[in-house]
Amino acid sequence: MAKSKAQHVVPRSGKWGVLSAGASRATSLHTTQDEAIKTARDIARSHGTELYIHGRDGRIREKSSFGTDPTLSKG
Fold this sequence. Notes:
Helix content: 10-25%
Organism: Rhizobium oryzicola
Protein name: DUF2188 domain-containing protein
Number of strands: 5
Pfam families: DUF2188
Strand content: 25-35%
Order of helices and strands: EEEHEE
Shape: globular
Largest sheet: 5 strands, mixed
C-alpha cells in the first residue's frame, strides 16, 4: 500500500487550495482558508498524515500530525 501524502493548505489564484504533498493541482479550492483547513484536516485525519497550513506569504504557519508517533511507544 502506498504511503499517504501530507496535506497542504495554500493560497491559490485568490482562493485557498488543498494539495497533497508533491501535487501540482489542487484537490479542492475554497473561498476561505477556514473552509480549506476543514477539508484538509478531514483528509489528513482519515489518511493518518500531516497537515501543513501556509499563510498568504506561502510560509508554513501551523502543522498538525494525525499519524502514529513512533516516539510515544510504550516500553
